[in-house]
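Continuing the series of single-chain predictions for the mutant panel. This is the parent chain; the variants come on the following pages.
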Amino acid sequence: MSSIAFDHSPTHTTVLPVRHLVAVPDLPVAPALRLTRRGKAFIFTISLAIIAVMVVLFGSSTLAGDKAGALPNTTTVTVLPGHTLWEIAADANPNGDIRSTVDDILQLNSLPNASALQMGSEIAVPVYN
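Parent structure:
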């Protein structure tokens, strides 16, 4: 037969501490952003700079004065087939800068570019002395 022996000596048992659950308190809410005097001055300056840039970019490009502008002396030219704006400018101001004369004709007739010139149309051409 077999026998089983039990050790009846006292055993050393380690008692573990009991951990109790504790509710975690809510985290404190971060305070709202507070600007210092220098920060407020910086924000104000940047805002003013942005407004100034917007006024310059999108503001009026003309200035109203108290004197009426003088109208240039002009003559009317009918555009014939084959005429170019360069030729018309060269005829109008033979001794002057042709590029400047072309620009004057474009501005005087509110033409976007030289290719907007239409055959048969009458355009105003400045008279140069």
